[in-house]
Design brief:
The complex is a heterodimer of chains A (180) and B (489). By secondary structure, chain A is α+β, with helices and mostly antiparallel strands. Helices cover 21% and strands 39% of the residues of chain A. In chain A, 28% of the residues are buried. The mean pLDDT of chain A is 84. With 489 residues, chain B is an all-alpha fold. Chain B folds into two domains: 245 residues, Four Helix Bundle (Hemerythrin (Met), subunit A) (Up-down Bundle), CATH 1.20.120; 242 residues, Helix Hairpins. The model of chain B has no long low-confidence stretch (mean pLDDT 85).
Chain lengths: 180, 489
């Protein structure tokens, strides 16, 4: 029974692949939003791909002596030393497991957020995203919106708010040039 | 005194007392009669001996006087001899009387008679001598009148007084014996009255006891008869049940007999089958050798299977490594696609078109990862199956080894079985024989059960008879109660 199924699947994949070359050129419009479904400290979250500038697995992180528990250390990205913060610790539920994945955020100064699991990359209609801040203060201020997915709802981590939290933790006062 | 004694003992005691009194009466009567007879005998003896003897003295005296007178007349010697003989008889009679009369008075009188006779005899002798000497009649008469007659008269007077005395004695004896006879008669009468009174008392006592004790006993007999009747009724029903049960038993034994015959036939068949089994068992030896060779071949095949399965496991492990590599590549492709998408988003219109390509690449990477995951699962399944198969095969190999050992044991057992089958064959023949004997025994039991059933019916009939007898006994007890005067009517 498995053999015909696999053969069908191969045939279908080949057809889809061939058809992709026959389809007219298309672009993704403003009616959809790109998201990364991630697992942070064992909990599901989503991250806007537009707020990331790169995803990297297993990047070596050099630890620094610091009083901030969320600061894992620094990592090098294309000749730039970037501080790496544990997103689980920032979200308020740290776990002892070392995060595997790093996402390099947009904006300056460069900042990398570490998370434990990359579920998948997805594009959802904008109508599936519910805008709005979750909670008025505290750690939930950096959760902006919610996306409805077949496997459940995921809160969307807002990178600029997270960056503000990091600055707050590091005692850094951003200049006007530094974009949020 | 008689309390606690049996009625028979009481009856015996009463009869014994009565008999004793009767015997005493009889003995007393006999003693009294002999006493009276003795007294009368003595009277008669006195009358016959003394009185007659005394009177005989007179008659002898008269005879002697006649002879004396004859001599005086004829002077013949014969008269003299007769007179002497008469005197001798007189003296003998006198001596006899003396012996018969112990009385002193009478003896004195006899002495006086003897003295008078002596004197008279002397006088007579003198007269006779005178006559012999030739004296005349007149002289003799004279002499006689003077000498002999006074003495003779005296003698006669003494005799008369003796006879009178004896007569008085006889009379007094007769009167005394009559008094004694009357006394004895009174004694017998008194004893007879006592015996009669005793017999009446014994009869009254026995009658009372008969009425009381025998009546009570007969009452007990009556109630016991009623109980016996009830028991006989139960025995009748029991006998009936027993008879029916025996009939069932007979039926069952008949069925048992049929079964026994069937068993005998079966035993015969079993004997035949045992013989066939014995021959078949002997034929099985060759098959055993073939089977042993087959098992050795199986063992070799199983070893080869184990080797192949282990090789298959190793290959599947290598496939897993390759799949890991493919998964890694898919993940890296995915990351590259994501980063390409990120980069494309900042590259304007061309970037957006490139994002579509990156999306396709990412989809392919996702599918590759999913396929690799499936392959990984399949490989895990294969490895699990291989491990299971290897374990099963090794277990199978061990089972084959164990089977071979067991087969050897089975072979030995089989050969033992062959021997045992031979033994069984003999035993089956014995069973066949025994079953035939058993069938015969069951037939005998059947006959015995039939007899027992008949006896049960007879017992039932006997119980009916017993019941009737008990009823009759009850009626008889009632009659007996009425007879002894303790009836309830």
């Amino acid at each position: 029974m498995t053999r015909p199924n696999v053969a069908d699947r191969v045939s279908r994949l080949r057809d889809e692949f061939d058809r992709s070359f026959a389809e007219p050129v298309r672009t993704f419009g403003a009616d959809s939003v790109e998201l990364l479904a991630i697992g942070v400290g064992g909990r599901p979250y989503a991250l806007r791909l537009s707020q990331a500038s790169g995803v990297h697995p297993d990047r070596p992180v050099t630890a620094l002596p610091t009083p901030v528990p969320a600061l894992l250390g620094v990592a090098g990205f294309a000749g730039t030393v970037v501080p790496v913060y544990d997103l689980a610790a920032l979200l308020g539920h740290p776990i002892p497991e070392r995060p595997r994945w790093l996402v390099l955020t947009t904006g300056t100064p460069p900042l990398a957020l570490a998370f434990h699991q990359l579920d998948h990359h997805l594009r959802v209609p904008i109508t599936d995203v519910v805008e709005g801040s979750i909670g008025d203060a505290g750690p939930h201020a950096y959760l902006q919106g919610l996306v409805r997915l077949p496997d459940g709802n995921r809160p969307i981590v807002d990178v600029p708010a997270t960056r503000s939290l990091v600055h707050q933790l590091a005692g850094h006062q951003p200049t006007s040039e530094e974009a949020s | 005194m008689m309390a606690g004694q049996t009625y028979g003992r009481k009856l015996g005691v009463g009869v014994t007392v009565t008999i004793a009194f009767t015997l005493i009466s009889v003995i007393t009567a006999v003693i009294a009669m002999s006493f009276v007879v003795n007294a009368k005998d003595r009277v008669i003896t006195a009358a016959t001996t003394n009185l007659v003897g005394a009177e005989a003295l007179g008659r002898i005296l008269d005879t002697r006087l006649a002879d004396f007178r004859g001599y005086l007349l004829y002077r013949t010697q014969s008269f003299a001899d007769a007179a002497a003989a008469d005197r001798q008889r007189f003296q003998q009679q006198l001596a006899t009387l003396r012996g018969a009369m112990p009385d002193t008075t009478t003896r004195t009188m006899l002495d006086r008679v003897a003295a008078a006779e002596e004197a008279h005899a002397e006088a007579v002798t003198q007269v006779m001598n005178q006559r012999a000497n030739g004296a005349t009649i007149e002289e003799i008469v004279k002499a006689n009148d003077t000498q002999a007659v006074p003495l003779r008269e005296k003698l006669q007077t003494e005799l008369t007084s003796l006879i009178g005395r004896v007569r008085i004695d006889v009379e007094s004896d007769r009167k005394e014996s009559t008094d004694r006879a009357a006394l004895a008669a009174w004694g017998i009468v008194v004893l007879g009255v006592l015996t009669t009174a005793c017999a009446i008392a014994v009869a009254w006592r026995l009658g009372r006891d008969l009425k009381r004790e025998v009546g009570a006993a007969v009452g007990h007999i009556q109630s016991s008869s009623a109980q016996l009747e009830a028991a006989a009724s139960q025995q009748v029903s029991g006998g009936r049940d027993q008879a029916s049960a025996m009939s069932e038993i007979t039926t069952t034994i008949s069925e048992l007999l049929i079964t026994s015959r069937q068993i005998a036939e079966s035993a015969q068949r079993v004997s035949k089958i045992a013989e066939e089994t014995e021959s078949a068992a002997r034929a099985g030896d060759a098959t055993i050798d073939q089977t042993r060779a087959s098992m050795t071949a199986i063992r070799t095949q199983v070893d080869q299977i184990v080797q192949h399965m282990l090789a298959l496991g190793e290959k599947s492990q290598q496939i897993g490594l390759v799949v890991d590599l493919v998964s890694e590549l898919a993940e890296q492709t995915n990351i590259l696609a994501i980063n390409a998408t990120i980069e494309a988003s900042g590259a304007g219109e061309w970037g957006r078109r490139f994002a579509v390509v990156a999306e396709e690449i990412r989809k392919l990477a996702d599918r590759t990862a999913a396929s690799a995951k499936e392959i990984r699962a399949l490989i895990e399944d294969v490895r699990g199956a291989v491990n299971t198969t290897v374990m099963a095969t090794e277990i199978g190999a061990k089972a084959v080894d164990s089977g071979a050992r067991q087969f050897n044991e089975a072979t030995n057992n089989f050969r033992e079985i062959v021997k045992l089958v031979a033994t069984t064959n003999d035993a089956t023949r014995e069973i066949e024989l025994s079953t035939k004997q058993q069938t015969t025994a069951v037939e005998q039991v059947n006959v015995a059960a039939g007899d027992t059933a008949r006896v049960s019916r007879e017992t039932e009939a006997s119980a009916v008879q017993t019941k009737a007898t008990a009823a009759h006994l009850t009626a008889l007890s009632g009659d007996l109660l009425e007879l002894v005067g303790s009836g309830k009517h």
